[in-house]
Amino acid sequence: MFGSLFEEEGEGYSLAPSGGRVVKGEGEPPPPRGRVNLSGIKNQGGTCYLNSLLQTLLFTPEFREELFSLGPKELGCLEDKDKPEAKVRVIPLELQRLFARLLLVDQQSASTTDLTDSFGWNNSEESRQHDVQELNRILFSALEHSLVDTSGSAFIQRLYHGTTVNSILCKECGNISQRQEDFLDLTVCVRGVCGLEGALWDMFVEEEMFEGSNLYRCGQCDQLVTAAKSAKLRKLPPFLTVSLLRFNFDFARCERYKETGRYTFPLTINLRPFCEQTEDEDSEYSYELFSVIIHKGGCYGGHYHVYIKDMDHLGLWEPPEEDTKPKVQKKKEVRAYTEPEKDDPLSVLSSIIAQEESRSVLLDQLGQRLMDKIGSSWSKKYRKLHGPIGKFLQNHSDVFVLVNNGTWVALKANPPSPVTQPSSPAHPTPGSSSTPDPVHNNTANHLPEPGLETEPKTAPEPQGSHWFDLNDSTVTSIHERDVEKMYQGKESAYMLFYRKTLLRRPSGALRNPGYQVPPHLLEMAEEENRRLQQRREEFEASNNSVELRLHLAPRYRLENGALKPISIEQKEATNLTFDRCRTVGDLRMIIYQKQDLWEGDMALTVARSLPAGLHLYNTLTDDEVSLYSAGILSGTDLFVWNGREVCGATVQTGAEWEPVLLTVVRPSLGEEEEEGEGGGVGEEGGSGLTKQSRGFAGRVTLGEVREALGEPQESLLCQEKRGGEGGGASGWRVFPPGDMQRTLKELALKDGDALLVLEPQTQDSSVFSVSGDMVTVTTPSDCRWLLVEYRPERRRRGGGEEEEERMRAKVPASGNMLLCEVKQRAIAELQLQEHLAGVACCLRQVDRTGKLLPPVCEELSVRDAGVRLMTSLSLCPGTAPKDTQLFLYFSVGTAPSSGLEGEIIVERSSTVKQCLKKMLESARLEGDGWHLRRLDWCEDVGEALMDEEASLSELKMSHGDALVITEGRLPPKGFLKLSVWLYVEPSAYSVVSMETEVNGMAAGSTEGQRLEDMTTGETHTHSMKLSPLAKMCVCLVGGAMVELRTVGQVEISEEATLEELKTQVLTLPELQYVCVPTPAFLRVWQLEGQRLTRILRGQQHTLRKLKLSSGVEFCVQQLLREEDLGPKEVLLRVQMGVPGERGYYPPEDLVWDASRDPSPRSLRSALASTYGLSPDSLLLAKHQPHTHTWETFSNWSQQVSKRKKKKKAESLLGAPFHLKDGDIIGVKNLLIDNNRDFSTQQDEQRLREEKEQRRKGGQGVGAEVETNRRVGPEKKMGPIKTRKTEVALSINVGVFR
């Protein structure tokens, strides 16, 4: 709910058309209501959840009328809320005022600021994420506490209160233990349930058995017995609120997630099967949907809006703009008429029996007749909601009768046939049952609760009318069928609100927003409407006025391509207020009247003030155009002139002639410069250079600039080099001769750029040094200073450490001064000669965080050492490196941390071995079992320095590099040190889908038990007993998850063969129980990052030929037969699709020989031979684990080269498939499976998650999961990003007892 999710368009601003004004919110009145004539609610930054619930309560007429029935005598007056003795019930009063504004005030959206203030919320609370289900309970609780001791104290209970009863039946003695529970809303499960009816069936019909090891202690029997637990609805409220549990927790990933699967809910529902008492009429259990609160987004943020059915027809419903054509609508209407037969089992069974001549059917044959009619069995279609078919027939004894000892089922003579009665839902949904018309039911014995009215059913409205989408400030019409689109996805239903179909609205409430509104609130609304109308009229008048600045030509002159005032004392512009709805001709006449002495033509040109002066752009030529249409805004500058010249000088207009203000730099060489031509301002300031500001038109060439400056052609023009070198000198780039014909715009010169002019006689000066196209300027101003700070060592006094006060000295320096001279001057300035006598010290630079950088080489100059003047250096104890030496950091075991690393100075020509020896001496370590490693780019311990005889300069080491002393010897030269993992085969060979979880094991089993289960399964010819201390990880093989177990490391020559590598691996202690006849029974995979990438082939190939290097990880897989793959043989994991389902059988390994023919034809033939099928009946696709998609292989078509007239077969080893070892190939048998879609629900779920992550600017979920499953025990799961702390929602209520 953060960021742009709550930013509303048009709220607080007036979005005028192009060229109009944009006025900030306070002075602008709110816009009136839109075409639907309903008011929205402003979002305060994060209150969309509150807005959705308030709109639902507003469009619950019985709720708002109960609220309006409470007068000031019971609630008090808001004017008295600050009085200490007054008991003012602020929350219901503010809610009354808000509802009155939403109903009666003519504004696009109302504000909830006063209401949230009465809640005690601050600004942070109004922008914080909260849950609408939580708000619903807290708001009802706050209202109940606020209405204590009033006539409305029980209206929440009257409207929303219901009860459930939980029963436990003892199977031994028949004793029933019951407990009653109250509810204001029902919370139903979403996970694993297809819809609302299924969830209610699980809650109130299905029984939970206590048996086996989970027995129940009966109070009557006083022993553990078998029992059945069930629940029923005992009392139904007039309004049923259903909260959907869409947010769950994934214990495998340790994170929350949102259920986005399909979850249906009917527009009307009959709750009779779920109630304890079922003897009443159907109308007592019938509910209709009137509000759906929708959540869009994920579990950590999103947006709420609400679909509402306008029961009182207060809004003006009209078909949405994207409405379909009438022809399409007609088709949909036919579908809506025919579907209830299939979805209503009462209608279906009645029609089946009615088609028989005897109007009766054998009960055993009824199931087959049902299958023939709807194409599905009773168990699959209706059992979950309606129970067994026999029980359903018995429950509807008013329609069916069982004869001949229950073997035949017949229709009664005059049943209340649902075929002839209209079904109550306008658009039936799956599982909804038809209910008789409430008008024909006897409702005398079933009166509603007090305060709830029932009236005869009025004439039905057109289908789909009076449903609206209320999305904060925006209200739009929708169709009733649009509600069904909220069954699934990231934008899906979150709360459902039903009302009893018995509740009818009185005729006086229809299209009457003022119905039952108290008189004082009606007066308040009328007064607010009057004020709003007055503000809109005043705003419209003021919003059309623009402030113009007129610049008259006689006051200006043209200078350096720009217009400048002739006199500084004279006022430059004249302000004029004008109506922007009037024309340009009207403006011209007004100016003529104000300028009596103006003669000749008058042109009005839009101008703009630039650093170089005033510049003209487009001229207003059409007198019939209004200023609004001409794009004239408030604050526009207009230049009044004759359209040709100013003071006799021709003026160029347009953006291409915009003047550029350049800083012209010339050497002064001690001579006094006069003011430059054209009145430019000259500065010297003792720098040796004179600077002068000059303006030039943007379209003049550089050569014309040189002529304008009065310079000969031999003069050099230079541009300052940005980010010049350190040491005090400034660098300039000489413009080549070709640039003399280019304009200033083409050279990208802009205001403030410096232009150095060097005349021929100054180029040989010692101040300037020309090298190629670069000019270095060294002026007396380069002799600046360096700030040297002395940092003494800490010394102990009285058992504690104290630091002496730091001393600073500003040392005059230049770029050519040696750093050793700077150090000597600093010691002299700080008077440290005696203190530092015989003590080595050095100069070190300091970064922005105050950390000391490596010492600088004192044999170099300030410029050569890269030290910038006017910066700080620290004088520290220690030796300064020479030009032939390196200063390095080092640490032992881990990456260096600030203040804990060691420092060392070594020769650049030193070898790695010599450097390691010196570091070990400094760290006081002994032995030769150590080696050095670099740090990688993320400051982690990286690769080892393998060549100990290489010099540091050959390894390109530089000042300040850090090395890590790591325990362990390097393998001898020509030897490799490889990490070995064991591929653990899975034992589950059942039908699976691509949705297998990462853990894939029974919950609660230990790691050792899981491993034993996996390694001693029935699929193995022998068992493998591995050490329980070996570390495990999860790895990807072509998109499938397998487990790997580390078994150790081997050290082997790179000239050894693959067969010798397998033999040495079998000698590891962890594999002592793995018995294989020959090394050919082992398959070796290479591990790269998180995946098994390739199989090592060729038993006699050397490891060098296989391109293995030290540090490579690989894993071995035990096989049931010998294997020796050729270079063109590919190991594929083939899985056959399960017919009729979006899943696959367990994968099987297939070795495909692609040496002769790598085309799809060859692979299809190999698979056809494996499965014993025809190649024409197979459809193949490759799974892409990175993108969670499937690429289908092409058919038998082949490409034909026009030139050679030869057939060119498509190769699966090349683009776009690039088949390699471990790839998953999906296979569809088209003879029994017509579904050509290879994707699974897991693929779709991953794509949705990654899309949501990309929208949030984060990493894809799939990639994040793979990162958390990295190979290696040191990689641990981490959160995707830090989230804000969730704060509980609360509403502050006063005490009114």
Automatic annotation (TrEMBL):
GO biological process, one term: protein deubiquitination
Pfam families in the cross-refs: UBL_USP40 (PF25822), UCH (PF00443)
UniProt keyword annotations, A-Z: Coiled coil
Acidic residues compositional bias, start-end: 1-11
Keyword ATP-binding appears in the UniProt entry: no
Biased composition (Gly residues): 678-688
Region spans: Disordered: 1-36, 320-339, 413-472, 668-693, 1240-1281
Coiled coil segments of this chain: 522-549
InterPro entries xref list: Peptidase_C19, Peptidase_C19_UCH, UBL_USP40, USP, USP_CS
Domain of life according to the entry: Eukaryota
Domain USP: from-to ranges: 39-501
Bias type Polar residues, positions: 420-445
Protein's UniProt keywords contain ATP-binding: no
One cellular-component annotation, GO: cytosol
Gene Ontology molecular function: cysteine-type deubiquitinase activity
Bias (Basic and acidic residues): 1243-1255, 1266-1277
Stated name of the protein: USP domain-containing protein
Species this chain originates from: Oncorhynchus tshawytscha (Chinook salmon)
Name of the gene this protein is made from: USP40
